[in-house]
Amino acid sequence: KYVKKKRDIFFFSSRRRHTRFLPVSWARRCVQETAFIVQGFGHQGYQIAKLLVERGAILVGVQEWNGGVYNPEGFDPVHLKEHFNRSQDITNYKYAKDSREDFSLMTYPCDMLVTAAKESQITKFNVNQLQCKMVIEAAQGSTTWIADYMLNQRNIFVLPDLLTTTGDITASYFDWLRNLEHVRSGLMMKKWTEKGFLLLTQKAAEVYGKKIEDLTEEDIASIKGPKEHEITFLAIEESLHNGYKETLDIADSAQVNLRTAVWMNAINKLHHFYEELEFLSKLSEVNI
Predict the structure, then answer these.
(1) Measured distance CA(187)–CA(184) in Å, rounded
(2) Residue % of the chain over a pLDDT of 70
(3) Residue 12 pLDDT > 50, yes or no?
(4) Residue 194: Cβ-neighbour burial (10 angstroms; 0-12, 13-18, 19+)
(5) What is d(CA 37, CA 115) in angstroms, rounded to the nearest whole number?
(6) pTM, rounded to two decimals
(7) What is the pairing mode between strands 2-5 and 9-12?
(8) What does the alpha-carbon distance between residue 215 and residue 201 come to, in Å, rounded to a whole number?
(9) Which of 94, 2, 103, 115 is nearest to 48 (CA)?
(10) Strand, coil or helix: what is 140?
């Protein structure tokens, strides 16, 4: 929902949800039957676990500050979250096949480890104990530099925080653009989109021998143009997807990991920006 703040300044009141876009959109085509452990079961960890399970992944373990639970057959993240909210203790969950009152559960076997708690959770002291095939950094700075180097040496794929935790910043950027223009996203195209959908629906109805008056309320609702938050969601997901693709292309061409590729991509963009800036400054000095 959008909340009006002061005069014509609007901000997105639920920007935290955007931080989960990249981990899920990245894993959308490869999470089927993937066993994963979430380290940190707060807002971020729960939302990622819930969406990954909806896409066919299996939540086999959850690590929290006071212990963790493990079940190779999988957990229902919604039921587990309800239990955790009630008892504030995850170790006494009745569907757990194994539980620990320490931080060792994140080293249990899995395909994917999602770190969604705080910084410095994967260090040189536990990195060699990890039994995952990939690490998804859903929290900023969850892997130390030496641990990151050791993960690369072990050929464990790492999706770095520089890619996965930028959803809220991207949402703020779109808020900023909207405030500059003083126009809501999609306002100029909404009615045109609705008109196009209506014409398409009419043609489809004629083909199947129906009239537009026979459409149900659900059919009519689907004709309506996109809402503002839907446009924002798609724009954020598209931006993050493009950023990931750019980084992946650099990583492939330069034969580096994704974390290094992120920095290379950022530095290249800054370099091109300053090149253009220098060109423009020289151009302004030319007397025409």
Answers:
(1) 6
(2) 70
(3) no
(4) middle
(5) 9
(6) 0.74
(7) antiparallel
(8) 9
(9) 115
(10) coil
Torsion of CA 157, 162, 167, 169, to 10 degrees: 180
Q: Estimate the crossing angle of helix 258-285 against helix 228-254, to 10 degrees.
A: 100
Strands 67-70 and 157-159: unpaired
Distances (CA, A) of 82 to 86, 88, 97, 136: 6, 10, 18, 24
Q: In the chain, pLDDT over 90 holds for what percent of residues?
A: 38
Q: What is the pLDDT of residue 13?
A: 38
Supply φ then ψ for residue 205, to 5 degrees: -65, -40
Match 């021998």 to its residue by tokens.
209
Residue range 230-271, pLDDT digits in tens: 777 777 888 888 888 899 999 999 999 999 999 999 999 888
Q: Which residue has the higher pLDDT, 55 or 187?
A: 55
Mean pLDDT of all residues in 48-59: 90
Report the interhelical angle of 43-54 vs 77-87 (nearest 10°): 160
- Give the model's pLDDT for residue 204: 66
The CA distance from 229 to 131, in Å, is 39
Strands of the 134-137 sheet, one edge to the other: 98-100, 67-70, 58-64, 35-39, 112-115, 134-137, 157-159
pLDDT in tens, 171-196: 788 778 777 766 666 655 666 566 66
Let me know: does 28 contact 55? Beta carbons within 8 Å. yes
Other C-beta atoms lying within 10 Å of the C-beta of residue 143 = 24
Can you tell me the mean pLDDT for 35-48?
92
CA distance 77 to 49: 7
Q: Which residues pair with 63 in a beta bridge?
A: 39, 68
